[in-house]
Amino acid sequence: LILEFQDNGVGIATNRLSGVGLQSMRERAEELGGQLVLTSGTGGTALRAVLPMSGEGGQRDHSHPDR
């Protein structure tokens, strides 16, 4: 599964400290066996999450047999 979000703003300042939200999203993607990539520049900010669909490398929800 690939999720991509992009805006056309001014980007994120390079001297800005990383917030809890982005760090949490990155950690969750990695827990699921995927990755989160953030790029930022004068043309805006883009966020791309690549997540496995099969549950490989991550935790599966065993409370529902169809997941």
Description of the molecule:
The chain is of the alpha+beta class. Helix content is 18%, strand content 28%. It has one helix at residues 20-31, and strands spanning 2-6, 35-41, 44-50. The protein has a 3-stranded antiparallel sheet with strand order 1-3-2. Strand 2 and strand 3 form a beta hairpin. The longest helix is centred in the middle third of the chain and has 12 residues, at 20-31. The chain is flat and about 35 Å long. 1% of the residues are buried. The mean pLDDT is 82.
Keywords:
1 helix, 3 strands, flat, alpha+beta, 18% helix, three-stranded antiparallel beta sheet, 67 residues
List the helices and strands and how they pair.
Layout: E1 2-6, H1 20-31, E2 35-41, E3 44-50
